[in-house]
Amino acid sequence: MKALRYQGTRDVRIETVPDPAIVDARDMILKVTSCAICGSDLHLYDGLIPTLLKGDILGHEFMGEVVEVGREVRSVKPGDRVVVPFNISCGDCFFCKRELWSLCDRSNPNAALASKQFGYAPAGLFGYSHMFGGYPGGQAEYVRVPFADINHVKIESDLSDEQVLFIGDIFATGFMAVDVCGVQPGDVVAVWGCGPVGLFALRSAKMLGAERVVAIDRFPERLDLAKMKCDAITIDYEKTDVLDALKELTSGRGPDICIDAVGMEAHGHGLEFWYDRAKQAVGLQPDRPTVLRQAVMACRKGGTVSVPGVYGGHIDHFPFGAAFNKGLTLKMGQTHTHHYAPALLKRIESREIDPSFVVTHRLHLEEAPKGYDIFQNKKEGCIKVVLKP
Ligand SMILES: [Zn+2]
Ligand SMILES: [Zn+2]
């Protein structure tokens, strides 16, 4: 089959590899009908995630048709159309039983590698380095899905792939980022980063009852989409002082909820940004927390800072004193996709939202390297790339 393989920093290629096979009785094999490039794939692309090796197949946002199941699989059969959550869960461990799906204790065969980095290992992820299990990803014609009974959401309506694909990652991620903050009527929610996750966080905040949502970015096309599709007030951080603007919008009090939908490769300006960038470049600090610092500073006293953006290592100059003295609540983590995806599918089926509004580029799988380049460099107004094998 054809699959997208990592070669080295900013070098990915489509190559021919052996088809995946059932290796455990609980596996299924999926023929991928659509897959997407996620913002977090760009951290892999940029060579910032340790234990990613040359030849690894990327991709964790995908869906398709079941073509084969292991003999212990009960709830899916060949011919079924499914979306697959990006994190792999067993359904039966301490964490899965508590609906902490992204923290599954049994789906990461390389738990020792991740434990060294994090203390304990989170769940395995498709196409996301060996520290997260070394599973081949779904930017391919076929993919093996472990624990098939648990790791799927069946699509039984005639909704298009583009309408349902994102419940497996970015829509669920944006939604959880807001949901864990317990939005109250009248709340102001500020979101840094208007990529797909940020846009879904803005839409979700509105769905969950926020009075006003504020979008912070520097790309006009992203801010336009946030305004048009998410009814957001927009701030261009290159033209306006973000903290001042947020204060002004909230009668000097600050937003109730601040969401960092950017993560470890934040852009910014000023001395602090260049300091982070220089430290990241020489490997002294893997993450650039420009946005996180700003979110903590901007958040109102007693408010909540939520972090769906990916971090992988250590950060420096974190304003912990501000977080402590303002009594902030911090929420973060990989999405518990299995918990959110079925409920989000219902919202899509009832036409409350059509998530395909984020898609700007539709390419053939063979064009995936070009897709990474335009997404990484924000060429052609790129917001979301969907690939069709
Ligand atoms: Zn993702
Ligand atoms: Zn589990």
Automatic annotation (TrEMBL):
Keyword Oxidoreductase: yes
Alphabetic keyword roster: Metal-binding, Oxidoreductase, Zinc
Positions of transmembrane segments: none
Domain of life: Bacteria
The keyword Zinc is annotated on this UniProt entry: yes
Cofactor field: Zn(2+)
Span of domain Alcohol dehydrogenase-like N-terminal: 26-149
All copies of domain Alcohol dehydrogenase-like C-terminal, residue ranges: 196-264
InterPro entries cross-referenced by the UniProt entry: ADH-like_C (IPR013149), ADH-like_N (IPR013154), ADH_Zn_CS (IPR002328), GroES-like_sf (IPR011032), NAD(P)-bd_dom_sf (IPR036291)
UniProt record similarity statement: Belongs to the zinc-containing alcohol dehydrogenase family.
Protein name, entry field: Glutathione-dependent formaldehyde dehydrogenase
Species annotation: Nannocystis radixulma
